[in-house]
Amino acid sequence: MRALRANTFGPPGDVLELVVTPSLQPGPGQAVVDVEAASLNFADILFCQGKYQVRPEPPFTPGLEVAGTVSAIGEDADSSLLGRRVVAMTVPPHGAFAEQAMVDAALAVTFPDSMPAVAATAMFVSYQTSWVALHARGRLADGETLLVHAGAGGVGSAAIQLGVAAGARVIATAGGADKVARCLALGAEIGIDYRHDDFVTIVNEATDGRGADVIYDPVGGEVFDRSRKCVAWEGRILIIGFASGTIPSAPMNHALVKNYSIIGVHWGGYGQRQPGIIQEAQNALADLHAEGAITPVVDGVVDLEGVVDGLDRLANRATTGRVVLQP
Ligand SMILES: NC(=O)c1ccc[n+]([C@@H]2O[C@H](COP(=O)([O-])OP(=O)(O)OC[C@H]3O[C@@H](n4cnc5c(N)ncnc54)[C@H](OP(=O)(O)O)[C@@H]3O)[C@@H](O)[C@H]2O)c1
After folding, report:
1. Contact yes or no for 285/293 (Cβ under 8 A)
2. Do 16 and 103 fall into the same domain?
3. By CB count within 10 A, which of 3, 126, 130, 158 is most buried?
4. CA–CA dist 220, 89 (Å, integer)
5. How far are the Cα atoms of 5, 63, 138, 140, 266 from residue 263, in angstroms, in the given order?
6. 68 and 168 together in one domain
7. Are 304 and 217 contained in the same domain?
């Protein structure tokens, strides 16, 4: 099979070469996936450079997530997966930028034949994270107001679509007119350019002073601090990430007096602890996709020869939506 392979750490364009290697053989508990599609992530660039949280010994193939068909399973792996289409995170050193990738069979979730693999991988981490946040953690209900920060970003745009699909009234913030327009196109009722307008004032006015029932925060820092000023009684602030680079602290007396919850969301942690939720989310996402209620934004599809260029575009923030490999 063909694979992009790095023999040392460095920028993808310097270290990745296309090689022909023997087919993968699964170890205990593992499954080999024939790659149909694989999203490119910013983390893949860090992975190549040896700067990611997982640092494999070279040689290795990058590609953190994969969608495809299980073609071989190892000892102790669920044999019913053979021939099934799955989406999963990959196991180093056999990442997804290849014709075959390795996954942990217990952490692979199935998706239906009706769903294109490009959609399955484009929706995997961002839509899974947002579904688990809004439903398993946030208990978002029909008719509630959802405030999504960084609504044009990866997880934020998924949260807008999933909030609308759940019957919520969605307000989104983003930096700049183009990004606000994207939030509105994704279904937000109100889009706020936080560089020019104060989201606290607008959210409170739009909810007659009540505030947002659920606040989805992938930004942290001052955005979290300001969010506490427009969260509703019995509201839930979902802590998704800290894209601002600042991890905020919360005064607990404020949470007590205003009677709201601050809820951590760690999607990656569900794989080991409650993998059933990941399959439940995947089934819900496949249904919503089939109904046309959610559509992942795909910037472009590349082949193995185009991966380095795709990663360069990611690094330069020149993409809108996911770039996906089809080898
Ligand atoms: N909890 C989980 O399980 C989980 C899962 C996946 C991702 N995450 C986290 O969620 C966060 C967002 O991920 P993503 O994939 O949506 O990223 P992304 O597509 O790059 O979007 C992040 C957005 O944050 C906003 N932002 C505000 N301040 C920023 C800054 N100083 N630098 C960069 N962006 C800034 C930007 O939107 P504006 O320009 O509109 O401000 C940007 O588009 C990350 O911190 C990620 O680690 C968490």
Report:
1. no
2. yes
3. 130
4. 26
5. 40, 30, 8, 13, 10
6. no
7. no
Q: What is the pLDDT of residue 320?
A: 76
131: Cβ below 6 Å to ligand 1? no
CB-based contact 71:33 (threshold 8 Å): yes
The lowest-confidence range among 141-150, 152-161, 227-236 is: 152-161
Is position 148 within any domain? yes
User: Which residue puts its alpha carbon closest to atom 2 of ligand 1?
Assistant: 266
- Answer whether residue 273 is part of any domain: no
The residues, ordered by sequence, that sit 6+ positions from 307 with a Cβ below 8 Å of its Cβ are: 4, 12, 16, 40, 97, 325
Q: Which among 123, 219, 265 is the best mutation to test ligand 1's pocket, defined by most ligand atoms within 8 Å of the CB?
A: 219
Q: How far is the CA of 79 from the centre of ligand 1 (A)?
A: 38
The reported pTM is 0.92
- Give pLDDT tens digits for 260-272: 999 999 998 998 8
Q: What is the mean pLDDT of residues 159-172?
A: 98
> Structure tokens of 284?
């819900």
Top mutation candidate among 135, 137, 240 for ligand 1, by most atoms within 8 Å of CB: 240
Percent of the chain with pLDDT over 90: 92
Does residue 292 lie in a domain region? no
Which residue range is the domain that position 219 belongs to? 125-268
Measured between alpha carbons, how far is residue 157 from residues 123, 134, 201, 217 in Å? 11, 13, 22, 12
Residues 81 and 195 grouped into a single domain: no
The CA radius of gyration of the chain, in Å to the nearest whole number, is 20
Q: Is 319 in the same domain as 255?
A: no
Tracing tokens 């979290």 back to the chain, one arrives at: 224
Task: Indicate whether 199 belongs to any domain.
Answer: yes
Number of domains in the chain: 2
266 ligand 1 Cβ < 6 A: yes
